[in-house]
Specification:
The complex is a heterodimer. Chain A has helices spanning about 1-20, 25-35, 40-55, 60-95, 100-105, 105-135, 145-160, 165-185. By secondary structure, chain A is mainly alpha-helical. Chain B contains 8 helices and no strands. The chains are: A mainly alpha, B mainly alpha.
């Protein structure tokens, strides 16, 4: 039991250290956790993404809190959030003192040059995975496509040309669409 | 300017945590309103700088920005106040939702609602990528590297290795660059 607390802390410390590029970039780590430990299932992870999006706060932080709660209850939620935040407190407050030099440092620039496409690729892989799970229903041969879901995604995609990028609008529209589909079925 | 205490910083970030809906992207307009227009604690250039630096640091962009702002206002004490204040209400709301999850899932249309919201995440990921793309994929190498990492990620290589590998490659590039610079 104590071992699980320690593992949970350590796993989220890793997420805090290795996440670059926003909350969704931490998802590959959560999927890996779901595969490695029996803390939560892939289905729970999908619920977690929805809930983290529609509650206040940064998505990455919400996901960590939620995952911790699902693993070990209230104290688990505390441990996972603390693990996620700790590296940020240490690194970011150190960087503050030299922040002008930091963003102009040649090494930092070179590292970011490689790191940026990496985090794009990691986020893309999560998008592809969600598409595979939710729209293709885990079949690569297109035999099980969810056409209603596909319609919604295409509709939201077209909206991106018209609307601002405030995510809550897309979530609200999609949630209402989901409820309508339920009552029409 | 009056000295800013732990509690002053905590209160403001508590409020920011409550109104921060839909992820970190909205943090800039909120901080601008709360910290610059209402309280005059920062100027616009500082906020811009903090945003740029936060994107280069590991972790969550909104949380890193809060730490930078807090540190500027009241040193390490302020940084702690900011991150605690901002995490407080998200923490409570997540714990409540997670606690009631089974009851919430029992409401008949809730599953369809989540189904819709999750599909929207595909589009939100696309939007996040669109934002990052032009700064990330800048030449042939970065395009190749993107595809290479995407392949490895789909093959379920541990993302921590991919990040560490990228950091090492970045350092190697810089060392090669400096050596070349000396030879010329």
């Amino acid at each position: 039991m104590y071992n699980t607390y320690f593992l949970l802390f350590f796993e989220f410390l890793k997420v805090g250290l290795f996440t670059y590029g926003g909350g969704y970039a931490s998802l590959p780590f959560l999927y890996l956790m779901a595969d490695t430990y029996n803390w939560f299932s892939h289905e729970q992870l999908v619920q977690l993404i929805a809930i983290s999006g529609i509650t206040p706060g940064p998505i990455g932080l919400n996901m960590a809190t939620f995952a911790g709660y699902q693993t070990l209850g209230l104290f688990g939620a505390f441990i996972s959030s603390f693990g996620l935040i700790l590296p940020m407190i240490i690194i970011t407050s150190q960087v503050f003192r030299l922040y002008r030099k930091f963003s102009e440092n040649e090494y930092v620039k070179s590292i970011l040059y490689v790191l940026r496409p990496t985090s794009c690729a990691l986020i893309t892989s999560v998008g592809a995975k969600l598409f595979y799970n939710l729209i293709l229903n885990n079949k690569l041969d297109f035999s099980n496509v969810d056409f209603i879901g596909l319609t919604l995604v295409i509709f939201l995609f077209l909206l991106t040309f018209k609307l601002k990028r405030d995510p809550i609008i897309y979530m609200a529209i999609a949630g209402i669409f989901g409820v309508c589909v339920y009552f029409l079925k | 300017m009056k000295k800013i205490s732990f509690f002053d910083v905590f209160k403001v970030f508590l409020k920011i945590g409550i109104i921060l809906l839909g992820g970190g992207y909205v943090i800039i307009p909120i901080m601008k309103n709360e910290l610059i227009e209402k309280r005059n604690w920062l100027n616009e250039d500082e906020l811009c700088d903090y945003y740029c630096v936060s994107q280069c640091l590991p972790g969550i962009i909104a949380a890193n920005m809060s730490i930078l702002v807090g540190y500027k206002l009241a040193k390490i004490k302020g940084a702690l106040a900011a991150i605690l204040g901002m995490s407080f209400s998200p923490f409570i709301s997540i714990v409540i939702v997670a606690h009631l999850l089974n009851k919430i899932l029992a409401i008949p249309f809730i599953e369809s609602l989540f189904w819709g919201v999750n599909l929207s995440v595909i589009v939100l990921i696309y939007l996040a990528l669109k934002e990052m793309w032009s700064k990330s994929i800048v030449d042939l190498f970065s395009a190749f590297w993107f595809l290479f990492i995407l392949l490895l990620a789909i093959l379920k290589v541990n993302p921590a290795y991919l990040i560490i590998g990228s950091i090492i490659l970045g350092i190697v590039f810089q060392i090669i660059k400096e050596k070349r610079g000396k030879n010329v």
